[in-house]
Amino acid sequence: MSAAPQRAKAGAEKIEVIVSAVLPLNDLVTRFEFKRKDGNRFPTFSAGAHTVVHMRDGDRQRLNPYSLMSDPADTETYAISVRRDDEGRGGSLFMHNNVKVGDAMEITYPVNLFSLDLRAKKHVFLAGGIGITPFMAMIAQLERSSDPWELHYSVRTEALGTYVDQLVSKYPNKVRIYYDDQSQSINLENLLDGQPLGTNVYVCGPKGMIDWVHKTAAAAGWPDANVHSEEFTAPQPGKEFQVRLCRSEKTITVGENESLLEAMEREGVDAPFLCRGGACGQCETNVVSSDGEFIHRDHWLEPDEHGNKIMPCVSRFIGKSLEIDR
Amino acid sequence: MSKFQFPESIKSRPVYGTLEARPGKYHLMIADAEGAEAILHLHEQDAGLMAKAHIIYIPKGSNLGERLRAIRPAQYYEGPTYEAAASRIERVLEASHMGTQIYLTGTEGLMGQAMRACMNAGIPHTAIQTEHRGSVARRMQCVHCKGITEDVETDPFECSHCGLNLFVRDHYSRRLAAFQGVCIDAEDPGNVPEKVELYK
Amino acid sequence: MTIQFNKETFRDDYSFKNSDWAIQRFPFPFHEDSYMYSVNMEQHRGGPAGSVYEKRFDVDEHYISEMEDRAMVLADDPLRCQSLPHMTLAGWDLLELIMVSKSEDYPDLFELHREGDIWRWINKPMGIDDTFTFLDETTLPYGPMEYITRQTQGDFCVLDQRDDNLWMDAGMVTTQADWSLDFDIGMNFFEWHAPVPLAHEKGIFKRALKFLLNIQQGAPARRLNWTMTVNPLLDTSPENYHKWGIQKTTLTPENIGAKQHLRVELQSFFRLPRSNALVFPIRCYLIAFQDIVKSPKWGRRLHRVIRDLPEELATYKGFIDNRPMMLDFLSKYDDGLPTSPGVFPDNETEPALQK
Q1: What does the pLDDT look like over C270-298, one tens digit per residue?
Q2: Which domains does chain B have, with CATH numbers?
Q3: Per the domain annotation, does A235 fall within a domain?
Q4: Does A196 touch chain B (CB under 8 A)?
Q5: pLDDT tens digits for range A218-232
Q6: N or C: less crowded end of chain B, CB within 10 Å?
Q7: What is the nearest CA distance from C26 to chain A, expressed in angstroms?
Q8: What is the ipTM of this complex?
Q9: How does pLDDT run across B166-191, given as a tens digit for each residue?
């Protein structure tokens, strides 16, 4: 067509930042704050958005999405909170152990896959553990626009109640905390019963909690369109497998603890991606041929696409051979 | 009574289903004329539904009201026209909560207007069940004067407000609960084709 | 940059004219000698200096007159600009996007001064100097979307992103090619495109939607669309079709060069930050056939595209009846020579007409 037919670069636009604060909040969670390296303002964003943080761990590149928990109207500082996961792939450990104030890093422009439904008459937030982070931004946004909300926040213990003090003191009438170790749990059926028409529920937490909320709401006659969830599916490890990349004309091996997308990146292939969590569809790749079984772990493909497409950011393969169009 | 088979059409043309009992605390059923039969069929599926149901029925000449009363819904209202029932429907929706199931059945005009009222109250249209029964006449909006002409059964037809001759489009607006009518003889004034019955 | 603004009309006496500058920068949409739908998206990150692709929101010689025509359309029919209640935040996002872009891209014409939430906007060509509080509608004479789009060329559709779909929940639509905002507002992507023939079966809209849902802040995209209009009439709305439709029958072999216009839409797509909505500006450019054929390559190509266009498309785009007369005129400018790929006129390198 016209004059700038550049192919879009993979991922969202990047911003160079300096780490301006590293604040351990409790045994498991540390908050990180960023300021722009060029001194300009950050882009504002819609609450629920996340940023993908680039970490250079030796010769390994890690890219992890984290919800932006800062007030969207605050364009001087971006803040995220990271829960240390000793059993994970190492991204959170890298953040906790290696990142210091003054470090230069790269993060992406905000991307929102978990936005508020602005038509809602009321917003109900259900948070489990570190799932509290997107709701911090949502609460800030809704307080500014004076829209009704309430938060039900499940934490393991008082000691691990990230941001509980701040939330309870600022919004005593809108926040309820449930302590696992005191056998407190959200009485969901009760909570859902009698909500006004147009109430939207948002849940962020472990997969089990998310499934439970969807099921309970459906059983109570709630439309699924009124129940929103975000779950960052970290790529699950799996058996090593080989893949032939037809366009790049190479055959690569996907290691146990890396995703197909990460393996391609490691091999210098510029494969498209955005959320890196199986939700946005941007990395969708055509399968040229396969002899084996796919392990589809995404939330994007239709069942009838499972035979001829794969989402490299989270899905894997076991079998004799796989050729993809990259 | 057999259900009309609508021919396949464009993506904005509503497609109706078959009512089925769904979980919920409260079941609001709005119907006109032969739509009552779909409600009676629903009752056969799940006899427990009616204890939590509110039926709003516009007979339009049919005598099915008695049979609806006989299945003993928790609330029953019979009205002469949708317009007469509209404020009641709005008030009922205002008092409703999440967990309310909506069942609409009868003519497209009835279902479209009731759906609009539910959407305005905050219910997503994808959660509302519909089943077509009876007349295939359409509510048409004249794109020129914005007036709605009810019960249109031919193509073309005359706008009941401004008098223009309009052809019938399948393009449908949930917000207006009407199909679109566009001037048929703009490029050749006076050349208006013979009226043909819809779907013939 | 100094632009000489025309004083012209897009109705009644149709005094609209393109200067030579406007003609050579016209967004000719055909990169080859035939046309079929495609998801022809590319990044909206500038273009050749002086081209319509260079700036985020192109301003040209028709600016003032187009805004006057818009004001007349709205005075006659306020329903051409509507915003469902939840879209006001997106309206503010759009206002910020346009004010920031235009004050940066055309500093001689537009100025934006911001002190916290107190903003002062100066639009020199339109003689506007307004101070208001950002995010407070009570300090503007119109809602934010209406306020800024009354000062920006092209139509604007503001799309809410929900349930893996886009919903046309607000818009300023006065220069559309024959669709009604009042009717379509509230519809989703597939629904408002429902009347377009052939494209749904080809899966065009499914692919296009996936692309659009993933447009992010800082990475806008654009594409071109086109149709035909008799007379440089901007307001070819269905609302007024019963009045303008008849103009299609006034073409003659003598007047077709001046009256038949190619109508091109430069569409762009920007992610809006606070609302996560997508704005879809549709900028309309008109050019008379007699001006297109001044470029030998464009003359050759347009003839071939129109000649070989499937009947369903020519019907949907509303010119099936006039096609024979169009081809009579255009064939005079097609000598059968090959044309270079791409949309630009390439006047230095394309051979002159050999007829």
Answers
A1: 999 999 999 999 999 999 999 999 999 99
A2: 26-132 (3.40.50.80), 138-197 (no CATH)
A3: no
A4: yes
A5: 999 999 999 999 876
A6: C
A7: 11
A8: 0.94
A9: 999 999 999 999 999 999 999 999 99
Verify that A161 and A249 share a domain, yes or no: no
Question: Using one digit for the tens of pLDDT, what is the confidence trace for A182-197?
Answer: 999 999 999 999 999 9
For CA atoms A144, A150, A155, A159, give the dihedral sign: positive
Interface with B, mutate which of A197, A215, A222, A226 (most B CBs under 10 A): A197
Q: Is residue A172 part of a domain?
A: yes
DSSP A26: S
Residue C166 · residue C215 · CB < 8 Å = no
**C223 is annotated as an active-site residue:** yes
Residue A325's nearest CA partner among A305, A306, A308 is: A308
pLDDT digits (tens, 9 = 90+) for A293-305: 999 988 788 888 8
Residues of chain C falling short of pLDDT 70: 1, 202
Task: Identify whether residues A103 and A130 lie together within a single domain.
Answer: no
Q: Indicate the DSSP class of residue A212.
A: H
Residue A275: pLDDT band (50, 70, 90) is confident
Neighbours of chain B (3+ CB pairs under 8 A): A, C
Query: Does position A87 have pLDDT exceeding 90, yes or no?
Result: no
A225 and B127 in contact by Cβ < 8 A? Answer: yes
C-chain residues within 8 Å CB-CB of B183?
A: 241-242, 245
The verdict on A259 and A222 lying in the same domain is no
Of B10, B144, B171, the CB nearest to C239: B144
The chain A residues in contact with chain C (CB within 8 A) are: 1-6, 8, 12-13, 43-46, 48-49, 72, 109-112, 115, 117-119, 145, 225, 274, 280-282
What pTM was estimated for this model as a whole?
Answer: 0.94
Task: Tell me the residue range of the domain where A306 lies.
Answer: 241-324
Tokens of B174: 């949930």
Boundaries of every domain in chain C: 20-331
Read off the pLDDT of residues C188-204 as tens digits, 9 standing for 90 and up: 999 999 988 877 776 78
* Count of structural domains within chain A: 3
Residue of A nearest to C45 (CA): A4
Instruction: Test B25 with A219 for CB contact under 8 angstroms.
Output: no
Listed in sequence order, the residues at least 6 apart from A257 whose beta carbon sits closer than 8 Å to its beta carbon are A89, A237
Q: What is the CA radius of gyration of chain B?
A: 18
CA gap C157, C142 in Å, rounded? 17
**B133-162 CB burial, b ≥16 within 10 A, e <16:** bbbeebbbbbbbebebbeebeebbbbbeee
Contact A44 C47 (CB under 8 A): no
Give the nearest partner residue to B126 out of A192, A197, A225, using CB atoms.
A225
Residue A2 lies in a domain: no
In a domain, A74, yes or no: yes
Give me the pLDDT at residue C37, please: 82
Q: Assess contact for B39 and B29: CB atoms under 8 A.
A: yes
